[in-house]
Amino acid sequence: MRAVVLAMALCGVAGAHLRADDVADPRGERTGGATTVFANGRNAFSFPFANLSDAERTRFAIGNSFFRRNWVEAPSSTQARDGLGPLFIARSCGGCHDQDGRGAPPAGSDARTEPAVALLLRLSVPGAGPHGGPRPDPVYGDQIANAAVQGVMPEARIVIEHVAMPGRFADGTRYLLQQPHYRLEDLAYGPVAPSLLMSPRIAPQLAGIGLLAAIADAEIERNAREQAAAGGPVRGMVNRVWDAPSASMRIGRFGWKANVASLAHQTAAAFHGDMGITSTLFPDESCTVAQAACAAAPRGGPGGKGPEIDDATLAQVVFYQATLAPAARRKPNAAQVVHGQRLFAQAQCAACHRPSYVTGPVT
Questions:
Q1: Count of domains in the chain?
Q2: In a domain, 272, yes or no
Q3: Residue 25 lies inside a defined structural domain of this protein
Q4: What is the pLDDT of residue 303?
Q5: What is the pTM of this model?
Q6: What are phi and psi of 277, to 5 degrees?
Q7: CA angle 284, 290, 293 (to 5 degrees)
Q8: Helix and strand element counts for the chain (H, E)
Q9: Residue-number span of the structural domain to which 125 is assigned
């Protein structure tokens, strides 16, 4: 595909080095260069890149179908989509990424009556794993699965309680925030580690992540060098993480803490951890040694053996996510938007949030 300019929404494209095949953008609307779509409404984040070919749009549609439709428990006559669980959080990718947008925690002040679907509770214990990443809890693994197939107990129930935090802005205006506190109840497999660390995560928006994948490593490394040379308070560090598809350490780009290097790894890991769907990258079920019923549960896929999502299907889902288009900025020349853009620059937000990039190929 053609190289495109990726422009962050609040900063426009001023000063970007445009490629010859990029489209003109005098109003600063095209957040993703030639890939940008002009769309509003509930489906605004679900369109393909504007510059995809017909063949690529077909791939996008196939990936979309596997992204949105529910997976089912094994054994099933629907072998292309069976293998859900044994432990899981959602039945489909779209179950957390609603309309390809971000998820939301339970809306009520008490989560006892509303299940947490798009909320992921990441678990770890002190120390580092084999590749320098976090160590999982020995009983419950690296995340809590609050749902399970028949015959297997869900790991736990996530309970959220909110504590009011009143305060005032500098001009005296009052505000009231709600600070969430998380805990686990109904632990099905015994106690968690005494030193357990919990980190809540909400499913992020997906539109434009393929452009993030297309930023060259050298550009990310240059950001770190320039910040270090500037000597200011912002000194970002390049995070290097284990990437299963390449079996190597690579620059982290995805996830709330840049802890995943590639969309292929991110997608396969989400199928595995969030839905219990195995693949060639993650061939084993996510059961721990304390979860015998989980380990004994039927497996999906052809003959109940091998990966539950094959490489070709996984590749279609990866392509779908990689080509979800960023929506154009709305009213970029409105006075309030322009004023906010100035404040963004004055506050030196661009020290972290670089205004624009020229991407390489999106594959």
A1: 1
A2: yes
A3: no
A4: 82
A5: 0.90
A6: -100, 120
A7: 70
A8: 7, 11
A9: 37-327
